[in-house]
Design brief:
heterodimer; A: about 250 residues; alpha/beta; six-stranded parallel β-sheet; about 15% strand; B: about 260 residues; TIM Barrel; 7 strands; globular
C-alpha cells in the first residue's frame, strides 16, 4: 500500500474561502485517516492572515494532539525587530519540532532583497530547513532566484497554476534544490508523467493543500499517473521525507 | 464489497458502465503548454480510468477558427464512434458561423452546443437568439462556460426551458449563487469542473441541490481527467450518488 506524506495542509479558516473550506484538528485527523496519510506538514492560516506568532503557536499546540503532523511555522525576517535574532529564531523553531517553514512575502508586504531577507535565509540555509512558498505569494522566477542564491535550502513551490509548464521545466532542470508540489491547481493533463519524463522525479512532492482543495483529486491524479511504482513512491512519500530528514537539528 | 475509491488506490479502471465526461476539449492552444492534448492520448487516459465517453469541443473554437475546430471534433467522433461525442461551438458574428454552423454539426451527429464568452459576446446577446431557439426546439443540451457569474445569464434560463443548461465550473466562485439558481430553474445542471478542486463543494451541492442535478466534467486536456474524477470518487456522498453524477445524469441529459 502506498504511503503518503502530505507536503502542505492548513489549520483553520482562510478569509477568502467558502464556508465549508475550513479545518480543525479533528477534521484534520479524519482526513489523515481517510486518505491513509502517514505524515503531513501543517501550517496555520492565521500565521499569514493575522499574526505569525499567534498562528505558529496554534500549530505547535495542534501537533501535540496528533503525532502524524509536523509543524511548519511561518517565518519573517527580523528587519523590523519582530522575531529577534534570526539564528535564534530558527533554532527555536527547530527545537519545537519544525522541519519546514513557510514564507509569505506577499501577505507580509516583504521584499525578497538580500538586505531584507539575507540574514533569515542564511539562518535557514545553515540548518538545511525546507522553505515552502505558495504560488499566490511569489512568482516562479523569483522563487527560482531565491533557490539559486541559496543552494543549500530546499525550496518547495506550492499550488502552482497549471499554465506555467513552459517556465517551470527549464527552471526545474537547472535548479535542483527547487521542488514543485502537485497541490491544485497544478493539475494539467498528464503533468506528472511529463515532469517525470523530463527527469524531475526527485523534485516532485505530493501535497493536497487541504482544506483549500480536495485531497482525493490529487491522490487520483497520482495513482493513475503512468509512471513506475518507485517513481510514485518518491512523489507520494520519499521526496518530502528526504527533505525533512535533511534538517540539521 | 469494494468501494469505487478502492479502484483509484489500485490505479485500476472504475467498474461502472457509462461514465461520461460532460466537459472536455481537445487539441493545442497557444495560451499554455498542454501535454497529451491529442484525441488518441485522451482516449488512452479514458481507458485507464474507465471513462466510456467524453463530450468535447476543440480549442480552436476559442479563436475565430470555429469551423476548423468543429471539423476536428467530427473527425474524432468518426474515429471513436460512441466514445467521442461533440459539442458544436458557434462563432455568432453572422449566420454562417452561427446558426448555420450549429445546424451543420448537429445534423452531422453532434449532441449539444458549447458556448464560451471568450469571444466577448454575452449569452444573452441577440446574436445567440437563433442558436438558443434552435437548441430549445430540438431539446439540445448547452454547456456554458461560467465562473461565478450566472446571475447575468438568468434570462436565457427562463426563456429556453427545453434546454438543459450545464453550468461549467459551477461553484468555482459563488457556490451559493449556483444553488439558488439550480433550485429556481429545473433545467440547470451543475458541472463542478475546476482546477482548484475546492474541498467540500461536491458534498455542498449534493446536500443543497441533490445528486440528480450534478454531472461529471474534467476540462481534459486543460486539466487531468484523473484529477477531476477523484473529486467525485472521494467525496463524502453515497456510492449511488456518485453513479448518478458519473453515469446516470449524463445519460438523461444526452438521451442515450
Amino acid at each position: 500500500m502506498l504511503k503518503l506524506f502530505d507536503g502542505r495542509i492548513f489549520l483553520g479558516r482562510d478569509h477568502n474561502l467558502d464556508s465549508f473550506q475550513f479545518s480543525t484538528i479533528q477534521s484534520i485527523k479524519k482526513m489523515l485517516d481517510k486518505y491513509r496519510v502517514e505524515k503531513a506538514i501543517l501550517t496555520s492560516f492565521s500565521s499569514f492572515r493575522f499574526d505569525f506568532k499567534f498562528g505558529n503557536e496554534l500549530i505547535f499546540e495542534a501537533v501535540k494532539e496528533e503525532p502524524r503532523l509536523i509543524p511548519c511555522p511561518v517565518v519573517i525576517p527580523n528587519s523590523a525587530g519582530e522575531t529577534g535574532d534570526e539564528e535564534e529564531f530558527i533554532e527555536n523553531l527547530i527545537k519545537r519540532g519544525a522541519r519546514c517553514v513557510s514564507f509569505h512575502p506577499k501577505s507580509f508586504g516583504l521584499s525578497i532583497d538580500e538586505k531584507v531577507c539575507g540574514r533569515l535565509f542564511k539562518a535557514i540555509s545553515e540548518r538545511r530547513l525546507p522553505v515552502i512558498i505558495s504560488a499566490e505569494e511569489l512568482e516562479l522566477e523569483k522563487v527560482a532566484f531565491l533557490a539559486e542564491n541559496w543552494p543549500d535550502i530546499p525550496f518547495i513551490y506550492s499550488a502552482m497554476n497549471y499554465r506555467q509548464a513552459r517556465n517551470l521545466y527549464p527552471i526545474l532542470e537547472k535548479i535542483k534544490n527547487l521542488h514543485i508540489d502537485i497541490a491544485p491547481p497544478n493539475c494539467i493533463n498528464e503533468g506528472i508523467e511529463e515532469m517525470v519524463k523530463r527527469g524531475f522525479v526527485n523534485q516532485i512532492i505530493y501535497a493536497s493543500c487541504f482544506p483549500i482543495s480536495e485531497p482525493g483529486a490529487v491522490i487520483s491524479y497520482l495513482m493513475y499517473a503512468k509512471i513506475t511504482e518507485k517513481e510514485r513512491e518518491k512523489i507520494a512519500f520519499g521526496n518530502m521525507d528526504r527533505l525533512v530528514k535533511g534538517v540539521k537539528k | 464489497m469494494k468501494k469505487l475509491s478502492d479502484y483509484v488506490w489500485e490505479g485500476k479502471p472504475l467498474p461502472l458502465k457509462g461514465i461520461t465526461d460532460m466537459h472536455a476539449h481537445m487539441g493545442p492552444l497557444n495560451m499554455f503548454y498542454i501535454p497529451a492534448n491529442d484525441i488518441h492520448s485522451m482516449v488512452k487516459q479514458m481507458d485507464s480510468i474507465g471513462v466510456e465517453r467524453i463530450v468535447c469541443s476543440h480549442h480552436a473554437v476559442l479563436s475565430a477558427e470555429a469551423v476548423f475546430g468543429n471539423n476536428e471534433v467530427l473527425k474524432a467522433m468518426k474515429e471513436f464512434p460512441g466514445r467521442i461525442l461533440g459539442y458544436v461551438y458557434p462563432y455568432p458574428v453572422n449566420d454562417k458561423l452561427g446558426i448555420d454552423e450549429v445546424k451543420r454539426c448537429i445534423e452531422a451527429g453532434m449532441v449539444g452546443i458549447k458556448l464560451h464568452y471568450y469571444n466577448r459576446i454575452p449569452y444573452t446577446s441577440e446574436k445567440y437568439e437563433k442558436i438558443l431557439r434552435y437548441a430549445d426546439d430540438n431539446k439540445l443540451p448547452v454547456l456554458l462556460h461560467t465562473f461565478g457569474d450566472i446571475d447575468k445569464m438568468e434570462s436565457i434560463f427562463k426563456d429556453y426551458k427545453n434546454i438543459k443548461f450545464i453550468l461549467g465550473h459551477s461553484g468555482a466562485e459563488n457556490p451559493e449563487m449556483y444553488v439558488k439558481y439550480a433550485l429556481k430553474y429545473k433545467n440547470l445542471y451543475l458541472d463542478p469542473t475546476n482546477s482548484t478542486s475546492k474541498f467540500g463543494i461536491i458534498e455542498y451541492f449534493v446536500k443543497n441541490v441533490g445528486a440528480d442535478r450534478i454531472v461529471f466534467g474534467s476540462d481534459i486536456p486543460f486539466l487531468s481527467q484523473t484529477h477531476q474524477i477523484g473529486r467525485i470518487i472521494f467525496a463524502d456522498i453515497s456510492e449511488e450518488d456518485k453513479k448518478k453524477i458519473l453515469c446516470d445524469n449524463p445519460k438523461k441529459i444526452l438521451g442515450k
